[in-house]
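Batch 3, record 17
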Amino acid sequence: MSKQLNRGDRPRPRRSPQFKATLGSLALTATLLTGCAAEAESPTLTWYINPDDGGQAELAKRCTEAANGQYRIETSLLPRDAAAQREQLARRLAAGDSSLDIMSIDPPFIPELSVFLEPVPDDVAERTTRNTLDGALAGAMWQDELVTVPFWANTQILWYRESVAEAAGLDMSQPVTWDQIMEAAANQDKELGVQGAPAESMTVWVNGLIESAGGRILRNPGAPADELELGLTSDAGREAARIIGTIGDKGLGGPGLATSTENDSLTQFQTDAGSFMVNYPFVWPAMNAAVEAGTLDQSVLEDTGWAVWPRVHADRPAAPPLGGINLGVGANSDHPELAFDAIECIVQPEHQTYYFLTNGNPPSNSQAYEDPRIEDQFPMADTIRKSLELAAPRPQTEYYNEISTGIQQEWSPPGGVEPDTTPAQTQEFILAVLRGEKLL
Amino acid sequence: MSSTTANRRGAHAAEKRPKQVHSDRVKAERRLGWYLAGPAFIVMLAVTLYPILQAFVESLFSLRLTAPDESQFIWFGNYITILTDVVWWRDLGVTLLITVITVAVELVLGFALALVMHKALKSVRGLLRTAILVPYGIITVVSAYAWFYAFDINSGYINSWFGWLPFISEDTNWFAGTWTALFVIMASEIWKTTPFISLLLLAGLAQVPGELTEAAEVDGATWWERMRRVIIPNMKAAIMVAVLFRALDAFRIFDNVFIMTNGEYGTEVLSLLAYRTSITRLEIGLGSAISVLLFICVLLIAFIAIKLFKVDLSGNTGDK
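Prediction for the assembled complex:
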């Protein structure tokens, strides 16, 4: 810089305004660089979070304080929709964005993004999965390796109106089957809360049914696109089609079934037509908030019961849907070690408890359920925990999006699903798309 | 544009006097033209030509964003996959249907609105024009959500307000059927863009000389005869420009479909197919090929309009 100054000292009257501008910008750059140098002592880790009720931002703050100046965690918001979150993460990762230090990732997208993720060090893996529930752990693995750290785990449980179950003569202390709740809804002239829209929720439903019937959508996870084997045409696939087709055909899901998502199911459950509903635990805080706001009658809340997801076969435990968020570190991150340090802080059991209590997202760590406040606020916590132990992940493959979209297109609307044709058509369609012979 | 005009002038001059040498003034004007238009021209090349060329090159590859190492040159394989798939032709059909119906309805409604604005009393003219323009000022995504929530079976009010109509009931799920969903999508599109077409037509209407209509009136022509034989023929250029602009716009429809149905239940359009293939599936090669085909379709529409229907784009601006 001093060299530049000396050059500028030479008399060049005509260029003096330009010189002043250069000098100004150099001075500014120098100031900025000095500022950066001061901050370089505590690197900033960016955590790309899915939208929530402020819980992840609070955890970022707590872990920044706990780091004692070793690093600072800043959050950056991803889109609300899970598929849009995947799109943004995939594009940033593929472009080598080094700001992806920590990412909140939905489990089904992990295999596809795993090539861009920093491997979880063995010691971190050991410490962060000590008490992780089986279902949540399965969702964080890819090809027998832990590629992300389980943070919180979501699962669907069966919500029901006690009055309807009682009138139908169902003993809800025992596991119930899909056929039983379908019959109960039909007899009582009520509607079932299921998600029939051509959206991710449809794949969640189909996968839950097939896994509960003892089958698998994808038989050889990890195989290349043109060698993938699907199990949609199995007995389990046909049974899933029978259940979905019957609900659609007999109008058991109500008139809005073909466009119904999780929020629509909740709205329907709260009306007089509500009977049984498969949905995530967010339902409970949402209903409580509605009662407080005066938009829902207290009696509906008091009439609400819960149980583990319905079985497909009476003699086989259900495999409920699994969701949630795992934390991954981008391979291009400038501070992978610090990022894993931060993740260890974020996922510790007391933080998971805090996150459940304030944001309603269930912990993936069994230890986090031991806090007595959880039972007070979420009386169904034990059911959620049991469900997470039984839960099965959706197909784990880099081509998840093709499989999921193929199912959504062929199984919606539910009224058109036929056990003899739909699974076979879906299988043929998805395999043709994967071979690059068809558009999706 | 100045250089084009200069060239045209030069060309005319060359026909008459073959050996004419340009004067310094003409040369200076040309130079100035390039200085003025050059930077914009370069920017245009950078932001349009470069991406188009890159999309074309990528369309020749089997390329997935999450597996860049497995990229393979497959010549026109992607184009064959697309053009032999029923999905492409179905989406093209839906896109053309939306284009034809919305443009036709907008033209009729827009013309009626233009007449109202043209004939309105001076005192209410400003207010009327503002009122008509309000839908056009609303962001498409916002208007799409407004229409979606109005017709949605759970939150909408249309079913209860219009339940007395024979084909609407409390249980009508508008977005679960192809035709009902397309009806809402097209209605929203028409509501949103009719003001645009009416403005273009109003400009055309204002250009029709008053003496002609007065003369026709004196000769005893009825309102319909004046409209058919005097007004419409005189504003043909404005009508064709309005149709061309709206057709190109409607052919690229995206927002309304994306928000209301995301292309499900047979409502997918070509822009959405390109989006879902490139952005959602991350199949850059296949998605680029769809985009290139979409671009060719748009070029084709413009070509048909300009060459076959002789739309004179410069006529409307007086740059003749």
